[in-house]
């Protein structure tokens, strides 16, 4: 705890530098704190920790940093980089082992030291992870992003400084019995009001309060589930909301063991129930049998969501009428951006290669331990393997399975993508489709597009990420198309039986002139501002169950799908309907449009460069779709963006892909 004088000095923060803070302490304080060594310009040159300071007035580190917007974005993007993702709740909730990193000794030091010294540094070892191999991998990733940055330390004129311990200043005062009783009764009353209300408002804080009371004061315990059950019976029209709150309560009661994605679904107490349910689900059906190749390469297109996103997402897709999405397969800068390579190798087991990461699966148990932990390296591939029954169970002999299915005991699966994480172009679903097709071909089977579409739905459920069917439809079928689900009963039967009739696809034929117009007027701008929250799907589904505005937004999409398709068939890009679709996205995924993107769209419209623009994906992906005004070129947009203070943004061309999946066998 520290204090500044009443009229503190004002500092100027360089927008390209990290700003650190310190104060002039005494030599005694350096024995229990860290210190900065700065040069004459105030730039940090090294850090020390708990050591005797040779000179006077050591610069004692304050636990305060300022990162300007550009560096904050770069820093926050590390949440998706393995193994750094292990240090975030995002990774831990997905089942990965934790990772301890220091903001100072694992970030600030990257601006001071050459790579070899930074990666191998043992300074303040207790502040960083003990797993040295993982720590070194993490530091390499951090150094790559921050070694060119400067860190400037400002010395604050503190008037008071006190180091607070963890326990000596804490208090643990228990409230009186009557306060708890009144609180519990108030919570139950407000929960009842939430269920029976016609508004969409709800609060998990009430449920958390009830859980806390039940745990800490068992003699005053209230059975909240019985209350919710009675509300289901009492008011059938509000039953969905009571069930939603029941799911929330179970997730809270699971104490995070299931992660934010699946609530209690991964809690060991529920394992036997869900394993029993899985027996009723079918994997991908076998296709036609061919000879077994030694190497398979599958390349896949990306997809542009033109209209109707969210109508493909269970359970919304079960009741939407029509449950239809319009999207388009595309090349990015003239290339298919996603690929999967499966080949025979001499090393036994399955080797997964994704970028710089390599994972070796030596037994079936390795696959089953990773498939439902989406932040684990290779988790998507593991889910795809289980989907195609390689292996059929955790006790299967993996080498025998590989020999029987692929004619080898060693298999390498390499996944590549030139699209960044969180692009909004359906990368993970498209990659899953490519993996499944490659695994099928490598084992002598050719799966139909419908089979793969069905299988990717299953993969995303196995992975616990959830999702709809539009991404795989977009990458598997050529050109512009409308994906459409069957009626409710047929859809349910396709999930539980060995059929793949859950989605129909109607090709939208367009004239050659309109296709050329799309290729010249549609542009991708990579903003670098990925905003898709991991629990967005749950939030939207929860809101849909609750009724209110989300239901109205979904209804507006349903009622305009046919009109959108008619406009495309007539050779017109319906910009007004695209604006409606984008506004729906922003309502469903509140805050998905970063301020810098809002400003960019406004500037592009003000300069008469574009007709409309909308962020990719369900909740604001990294790419911005842009529809240019007639006569405006890609180079004009590229030049404008480079001049308006958004140097990190890049512009990419779009080409309608009429052969979205290509296969090479050896």
From TrEMBL:
Keyword check for Lipid biosynthesis: no
Domain GHMP kinase N-terminal residues, every copy: 399-478
GO molecular function list: ATP binding; fucokinase activity
Keyword Nucleotide-binding: yes
SUPFAM superfamilies in the record: GHMP Kinase, C-terminal domain, Ribosomal protein S5 domain 2-like
Keyword annotations: ATP-binding, Kinase, Nucleotide-binding, Transferase
Any single Pfam family the record assigns to this protein: GHMP_kinases_N
One annotated GO biological process: GDP-L-fucose salvage
Protein name: GHMP kinase N-terminal domain-containing protein
Lineage: Eukaryota, Metazoa, Ecdysozoa, Nematoda, Chromadorea
